[in-house]
Every structure is written in structure tokens, then in C-alpha cells.
Amino acid sequence: MKEIIAIIRPKKMGPTKEALDKIGFPSFTVVSVLGRGKQRGIACEVDVDIRPELLKQGKSRGMKYVPKRLLSVVVKDSDVDAIVRTIIDTNRTEQIGDGRIFVCPVESAMRVRTNEINEDAIS
Questions:
Q1: Is 34 strand, coil or helix?
Q2: FRET pair for 8, CA 20 to 30 Å: which of 19, 39, 43, 52?
Q3: How do residues 40-66 score in pLDDT, each as one tens digit?
């Protein structure tokens, strides 16, 4: 099993959800996060209120942190390529800030309600 962690633009969350649902993966976790990468700012994509403490102080414009969405999904090894490709195809704008995807091993999983373990717990 693998955990796919994707950090994407907030405005791409809806299309990503629809694309994953369309290929049969409607279950995932999403968290609103703040971070920064090489872009060190943001260009016309904020659709949320930004707290004043997040704004840079001084001469340079931009933000200390950029609002993003962190999406996490645990899947069978055989499903990783399809999900990663779907996330890339849905989120690629070819502009800085398109995000990152990480694929991490998962040693075990358990569904609390039924005590199913590993792949049975994630399907």
C-alpha cells in the first residue's frame, strides 16, 4: 500500500475531487495548509481571507505563506500510477505553484469499525 500526498492549489480541489471520483477513488482526506516553495508569493489565486500576520512586512510584496490544499489518499500499489497521473493532469497549469506529489509506503491499515486490515481496510 502507498499513501499519495498531493499539495495543490485551493481552486483545483473541486476538479481534483471530480477526477478522482471518476476513476473510482472518491475517498481521501483534505486539509487546508499554508506553505511556500520557490515562488515565494502568489499570483491571482487567493479566494480566501488572508490573516494580516501572513503578509510579508517590508519592501517586498507577496506573502510569507501560500494557501494550498493537502490531499492524502491510501491505495493499493497497483493504483498509484493512475491516481498520480490523474492528479497531475488535473492540476498542471504549467505555472509556478502547481504543487507537489509525494508517494510514501504504508506498512499497515485498519478500519476501526470492522477491524479489517491492510488492503481490505482501504477498499
A1: strand
A2: 52
A3: 665 554 445 556 665 555 555 556 788
